[in-house]
Specification:
The protein has ten helices and ten strands. It has 288 residues and is α/β, with parallel strands linked by helices. Helix 2 runs parallel beside helix 4 and helix 2 runs parallel beside helix 10. The model has no long low-confidence stretch (mean pLDDT 95).
Length: 288
């Protein structure tokens, strides 16, 4: 449902939620959560597509989660700095790096609004996953990413799109979006833990592209590329793509259908007007 403000203790709520989520962060597969799997495949594509911008360079992975992108960066980058608010997720990152003998990573448990790095000290900044939307002071977080990126470097961010086809299933969110002019709104995300008999409700911020572009431009970041994720798949009800625990595992034919929709979405990812109605979006920007 639409909400008017972030929770007063948003940072602590997010930290606790992802600490509890850490043990099940990587066990989601096509039979459990196709939406999550398709999201990861899309992000992996962009990490590899942007390889010329970060290979042999210093990379900052903001909101690194369990390290799905961190490990990819570490395999070819000069050095990787991974930052996340969750200590348990940072532990999962270390568990991924160690078996592969990757020692060129620095792990920092911290807040994206206070990056402990010098100005212009990294070449490539990535903030993939639902990172920027969980941060109440997202403006400062973007400013921090721009500050630490060197001139000529790259900043790429994934964000939740304000307008997407799935709003048809959520009249309250649709109304809130219609009454919020020229900028994104706040919404609730409910996550049902697989290993705990509990759920968590978190507030997150959506953005319009002009709004995100404005924040980036304000800090010397010029958008060079944009794409949308989960375009047609947004028309599939969430309880099918992200089913409750009692519905696991999904039927094989359901998985194949959702995979086919995901392939169509992938082909439409940068085609106008389709990407404008994606569930989430990626922007790639160059630091002036």
């Amino acid at each position: 449902m639409g909400v008017n403000d972030f929770d007063a203790n948003q940072e602590k709520l997010v930290q606790k939620a992802y600490d509890l989520m850490a043990e099940e962060y990587d066990i989601l597969d096509d039979r459990i959560n196709p939406f999550y799997v398709n999201d990861c495949k899309f992000l992996d594509h962009f990490v590899q597509r942007l390889l010329p911008h970060w290979r042999g360079q210093i990379v900052l992975d903001v909101g690194c989660g369990s390290g799905l992108q961190t490990v990819q960066f570490a395999s070819r980058a000069k050095h990787v700095i991974a930052v996340d608010i969750s200590g348990e997720l940072m532990r999962k990152v270390q568990e991924k790096l160690k078996p592969q003998g990757l020692t060129n990573a620095t792990l920092i448990q911290g807040n994206a609004t206070q990056l402990p790095l010098q100005d212009s000290s990294v070449d490539f900044v990535s903030a993939y996953g639902d990172v920027i939307g969980h941060i109440p002071d997202y403006v400062r977080a973007i400013a921090e990413m721009a500050r630490v990126c060197r001139p000529g470097g790259t900043v790429t961010i994934e964000y939740d799109n304000k307008w997407h086809l799935g709003l048809l299933f959520h009249p309250a969110d649709l109304w809130n979006a219609l009454t919020t002019r020229r900028k994104g709104d706040l919404r609730r995300w409910t996550y049902e833990y697989l290993n705990h008999d509990s759920k968590v409700d978190l507030t997150y911020k959506t953005f319009t592209f002009p709004e995100m572009k404005s924040h980036l431009n304000r800090h010397g970041l010029v958008v060079t590329e944009r794409a949308g994720m989960h375009i047609l798949s947004s028309l599939i009800p969430e309880h099918i793509q992200d089913p409750p625990k009692e519905k696991h595992p999904l039927k094989a034919y359901t998985v194949k259908f959702l995979q086919a929709i995901a392939q169509c979405d992938f082909r439409l990812k940068q085609r106008s007007p389709f990407y404008r109605l994606a569930y989430s979006a990626i922007v790639v920007a160059r630091k002036l």
